[in-house]
Amino acid sequence: MAAPMLNQPNSLLANMFAAGLLDDQFQELQMLQEGSAPDFIVKVVTLFCEDGERIIGEIAKLLDKPCVDYDKVGGFVRQLKGSSASIGALRVKNSCIQFHQCCQEKSKDGCVNSLDSVRNDFYDLCSMFKLHASAGPAGAGLPKQ
Amino acid sequence: RRRIRVLLVEDEEIHRVVARAVLRAAGVEADEAENGAEAVRRVRERVGGAGAGAYDLILTDKQMPIMDGHEATRQIRAMGVTTTIVAVSSDSLPSDVQAFIAAGADDFTPKVHAGPSNPPDQSCFTPE
């Protein structure tokens, strides 16, 4: 029986593109790695996952308060939107756009639901990055668990 | 051929790492500042008596701690510096663009997204 497709790093990445987790910007980063430092993608993905985790934590704390500072929440959402756009994290970026709308409307329920969406999309993506790194010999330069 | 002197002004490391790689792919090594105040200080140093001469291009983000891109642009222009300043920001509403131009920037480009197949437009500045 042929090896499962999921064990092939290129298939994993292809699945991530097909699932809408990644967009063309990630391909641009891959092309930059060819001419740049060999650990470029590792560095960018690591920064994204670490910064994103911190930002999501900060947003959760802010939304837990009885009086929500929507400007601060919006600021963090803008930051995550920016970094997800930079890395090509399409679904996270789109979730952030929706989230930002809820911040502008000062809708607590909307923000709480949006945080759930962002969190799910973010952790889906970072898990796939880690899986990709574990699957192949070089993991295409992605950070390992 | 003289090397192009670029100053990248950006507070978030992930954006600096990506911008650094994009610039390197275009054959450019840039100085970096993590906020507007540091950018103003670096520009002042370069144009000072012992400085290495003005930058050819300054790429600046908008929202940064300590001093934002608008204020940094205003202060750089107030020094009499005519270096091309290009605002690079994910906030690209017409009002955002206008605010930067009013502060003295020469151009504005959305932060998303340059890469090898879409390199940054270098036609907006001419090194001496």
Automatic annotation (TrEMBL), chain A:
UniProt xrefs under InterPro entries: AHP1-5/YPD1 (IPR045871), HPT_dom_sf (IPR036641), Sig_transdc_His_kin_Hpt_dom (IPR008207)
GO cellular component: cytosol; nucleus
Gene Ontology molecular function terms on file: histidine phosphotransfer kinase activity; protein histidine kinase binding
Compartment list: Cytoplasm, Cytosol; Nucleus
Span of domain HPt: 44-124
Residues passing through the membrane, by range: none
Protein keywords: Cytokinin signaling pathway, Cytoplasm, Nucleus, Sensory transduction, Two-component regulatory system
A single BP term in Gene Ontology: positive regulation of cytokinin-activated signaling pathway
UniProt cross-references to Gene3D superfamilies, sorted A to Z: HPT domain (1.20.120.160)
Keyword field contains Plastid: no
Domain comment in the entry: Histidine-containing phosphotransfer domain (HPt) contains an active histidine that mediates the phosphotransfer.
Function: Functions as a two-component phosphorelay mediators between cytokinin sensor histidine kinases and response regulators (B-type ARRs). Plays an important role in propagating cytokinin signal transduction through the multistep His-to-Asp phosphorelay. Functions as a positive regulator of the cytokinin signaling pathway. May play a regulatory role in salt and drought tolerance during plant development.
Name listed for the protein in its UniProt record: Histidine-containing phosphotransfer protein
Organism field: Aegilops tauschii subsp. strangulata
Lineage, uppermost ranks: Eukaryota, Viridiplantae, Streptophyta, Embryophyta, Tracheophyta
TrEMBL record, chain B:
Modified residues (4-aspartylphosphate): 61
PROSITE patterns from the UniProt entry: RESPONSE_REGULATORY
Region entry Disordered, spans: 108-128
UniProt cross-references to SMART domains, sorted A to Z: REC
Classification via InterPro entries: CheY-like_superfamily, Sig_transdc_resp-reg_receiver, ST_Response_Regulator
Example of a GO biological process term: phosphorelay signal transduction system
Response regulatory domain boundaries: 5-126
Keywords noted in UniProt: Phosphoprotein
PANTHER family tied to this protein: TWO-COMPONENT RESPONSE REGULATOR, TWO-COMPONENT RESPONSE REGULATOR ARR22
Protein origin, superkingdom: Eukaryota
Protein name per its UniProtKB record: Response regulatory domain-containing protein
Highest classification ranks of the organism: Eukaryota, Viridiplantae, Streptophyta, Embryophyta, Tracheophyta
